[in-house]
Every structure is written in C-alpha cells, then in structure tokens.
Design a protein that fits this description.
The chain is about 35% helix and about 15% strand. By secondary structure, it is an alpha+beta fold. It folds into two domains: about 100 residues, Phosphorylase Kinase, domain 1, CATH 3.30.200; about 200 residues, Transferase(Phosphotransferase) domain 1 (Transferase(Phosphotransferase), domain 1, Orthogonal Bundle), CATH 1.10.510. The strands form four sheets. A six-stranded mixed β-sheet has the order 1-5-6-4-3-2, with helices on both faces. The protein has a two-stranded antiparallel ribbon with strand order 7-10. A two-stranded antiparallel ribbon has the order 8-9. Strand 2 and strand 3 form a beta hairpin. Helix 4 runs antiparallel to helix 10. The N terminus is likely disordered.
C-alpha cells in the first residue's frame, strides 16, 4: 500500500521554528554519516550536526552551534501523528527544562526535526549504561536532575491548555553541558481533558514499567498519570536500577514491586539505594526522597502530589543535601 502523501499545511506555522533546507542539514551532519549518529529510537536515527547560531546555515563540523537532527523512519514505531505532535507542542511551548526545538525539514516524504544538542545525553545512559562519556551521577546531581525534570512537568501541567506528557521516562530526560535536565520527545503528548471532564480517553501507549496502573487498565489519562511515571523515574534515580530488568531474579525484575516494602523504613531504605553513591547522602535525605517517590506511586491517583508540589519538595531536599 503506497504511503499517504504529506502536506505542508499539516505543519503548524510557528514563527518560533525555522524550516531548514534538506541539503543544509545534509551538510551539517556530514551527509548523515553513520559516525554522526548519537541515538536511535522508535522515531528513527538522531544525527549530530553543526550550524551557525545566528544564520542557522551549515558550518564546518565541530564549529558553531551543535544540533541534534532526528530523522523520521517512515516504517518505524512512530509516524506522521507523532512527528506533527512534536512540532505542535515544542513549536509553541518554551521552558528552560524542555528541549528546544529549533526547526524542521520537509522534503518529499522525508521528515526531520532539529533540536539543540544535549551534550551529556540521557539520564538513562548515566544511570544504566557504561559508555565512556557517561559520568557517574553524584547524589546531589541526581536530585538536581529530578528537580529540573519536575519543573518541566510543572510547566506542562500549568500551561493553557494543560499538556499531559504521557512518556515520562529516563531515556526522555536529556542533560546539557551544565547538567540541567530537559524533557524531550513529545510525540505521545496529549492535551488535558476539556472543562468539566476528569480525564482523556486514549489507547494505551508508552513504555512498560512507567505507565500508571489506572491508565494501563482503562486508558483514562490525567496529569496524575505523569506523576506516577515521575515516581518510577525517581526510584530509578535512587536505586540505580531500571523500572523493569528481565536479567534480575523474578522477585526483583519489577522495581516498584521490589522496592516498595523498603521505602519507608529507616534501616531497610539503604537496601534500595544505589551502591555507587554510598556515603553521599544522609538516611534522612534518602527517606525524604523515597517518601516522595512512594507518594507518586500511590494506587489512588487523587492522593498523588501535583507537579508543583514535586518541585517544592525536591527544592527542599536539594537544599538539605547542600547544607549537610
């Protein structure tokens, strides 16, 4: 079956976004060479490139402003709807804790998105992958990154209309050269419920281990679905373990189920904490962080904190960490 043709008018005409020429992006990324690839996901490959920060013209590789160019794989897991969602959300939203979308490129069936380059990669890489560029994140940096991500969520949840992120996970939290956290990949985002409605009904999508149980069971999406996912990521940050790890013993594969019984006990909490940051925090700080994670993971979505409350509590925790 032939692919449905794209139409330029599908793209939101935002004055904040530049429409790039395909040949310029080709030049900026060294002709999309494999050694320019910095990531790959359901959307497609992500290439590193370089442009002039004022004119946005391609520059010699390694000079000017670093960019990340995401190329849509037309036969991949994400397609037209997600590509347009990314443009329509990031083309209008602007916050220090959201990755900046600089522009896009449309050439026949090809679709590309151009972002600011996040030099420290994803939180997932730092927590779970032993790559040469991945730095072992200290306790203070971990809490600072959690705070930055919470600020990004709080902005989305307070925008007009409200935006439900729907794909909050460690791989979508990117880190810049100053270790500031920024949310990326808005392909699955949705606007919140209309006035008088309690939720948005959608097909269940996302990544196993991060989605709220009520959303998985009913498809009912609310901002509290994002809060549950935040709790999972906060637990990953504390434990240095994945939300779901098939390589672990059966009783430890699911992080939330395994860690839950330990999170409120002063003696047991250390059993959950990442061994690599041992000695960098007080038991009081660990309990405060784990208590927040537990509140986010409540089965009752109404008892989960709001994203603005996450910001307040993490700011208090970071202040506690820096004065201890």
């Amino acid at each position: 079956m032939p692919l449905k043709p794209w139409r330029q008018e599908e793209v939101l005409q935002s004055s904040n976004l530049k429409r790039f020429d395909y040949d310029d992006l080709k030049k900026a990324t060294k002709n999309f060479r494999p050694d320019s690839i910095v990531g790959e996901g359901g959307f497609g490959c992500v290439f590193k490139g370089w442009i002039d920060e004022n004119t946005f013209a391609a520059t010699r590789y390694g000079t000017g402003l670093g960019i990340a160019v995401k190329e849509l794989n037309l036969h991949g897991l994400q397609g037209r709807q997600e590509w347009l969602a990314e443009i329509n959300y990031l083309g209008t939203l602007c916050h220090p804790n959201l990755v900046k979308l600089i522009g896009y490129c449309v050439k026949e069936e090809q679709r590309l998105l151009v972002y600011e380059f996040m030099s420290q990669g994803s939180l997932e890489n730092h927590l779970f992958r032993r790559r040469s560029y991945s730095k072992l994140l200290s306790w203070n940096l971990r809490i600072s990154i959690a705070l930055g991500a919470a600020k990004g969520l709080a902005y989305l949840h307070s925008s007009e209309p409200i935006v439900i992120y729907r794909d909050f996970k460690a791989s979508n939290i990117l880190i810049d050269s100053n270790y500031n956290a920024k949310l990326s990949d808005f392909g699955l985002a949705r606007y919140g419920p209309d006035y008088g409605m309690t939720h948005v009904s959608t097909r269940v999508v996302g990544t196993y281990g991060y989605a709220a149980p009520e959303y998985m069971a009913t498809g009912h999406l609310t901002i509290k679905s994002d809060i549950y996912s935040f709790g999972v990521v906060l637990l990953e940050i504390l434990a240095g373990r994945r939300a779901y790890d098939p390589n672990l013993p059966e009783t430890e594969k699911d992080l939330v189920k395994w860690a839950g019984p330990y999170l409120t006990n002063k003696r047991k909490i250390l059993h959950v904490m990442d061994e690599r940051i041992k000695g960098q925090y007080t038991v009081r700080a660990a309990l405060k962080a784990s208590s927040l994670a537990l509140k986010c993971l409540s089965e009752d979505r109404k008892s989960r904190p709001g994203s603005d409350q996450l910001v307040i509590e993490l700011e208090q925790l970071l202040k506690m960490c820096k004065t201890q």
